Amino acid sequence: MIIGLAGGTGSGKSSIVCGLVARIGGCVIDLESYAQNGSASDYEPEAIDTTLLVTQLGELRRGEAIRKPVYSLEAHTRTGVEVVAPARLVLVEGLFTLWWESLRSLLDVKVFVSAPADLRLIRRIRRDLAERGRTVEEVLHQYSGPGRTAHERYVEPTRAHADDVVINDGPLEDTVEQVIALVRRRRVDGLAGAVHQ
């Protein structure tokens, strides 16, 4: 089963994915890894190599291992590959996960993760200061400038493609449980459909 999680920066997609892997296992495909070399903006769908992404998801579905790119956000280039073994559950997460029809068609479950804008900003500041060495001023500039434009143009409209919207504004465990319940419902519905065909 391939589950796609989309949503704005700081909505908690990566944290939810980590929680899902801890609870039920699986492998993770993050869209940031598929950024093209020299991409000037992390906020444009065109920055993502969707051809490679879709190809590798197809290989995982067929039970084949893939060589997922390793991308450096600091150097704006690929720095190597990481071998990802196939798993019964594949989690695809990123800002634009629900943007392309070619990717949506591979997803068995499509989830949009929503959170209030102020909470997303707080999370983004904490993450970028701790993990990416950015200053508060840099984060605020990105969030209120290109980040907000991209969210309104490319991210928020994809909510319409989701099977379900989860609000991630409380304990992370509650949101993870919502996604697990959605996956179980989809699996049961899919089995029921197969039986009646």
Beta-strand segment tally: 7
Rg of Cα set:
17 Å
Strand line-up across the major sheet:
2-5-1-6-7
Could you tell me the mean pLDDT? 88
How many H/I helices? Answer: 6
Order of helices and strands: EHEHEEEHEHHEH
Low-confidence stretches: 192-197
Description:
The protein has 197 residues and is an alpha/beta fold. 45% of the residues lie in helices and 20% in strands. The chain is built from 6 helices and 7 strands; from the N terminus they run βαβαβββαβααβα. It has helices spanning 13-24, 50-61, 101-104, 117-131, 136-155, 172-196; strands at 2-7, 27-30, 66-72, 77-84, 90-93, 109-114, 164-167. The strands form 2 sheets. Strands 2-5-1-6-7 form a 5-stranded parallel sheet, with helices on one face. It has a two-stranded antiparallel sheet with strand order 3-4. A hairpin with a 4-residue loop joins strand 3 and strand 4 (77-84). The radius of gyration is 17 Å and the shape is globular. The two termini are 20 Å apart.
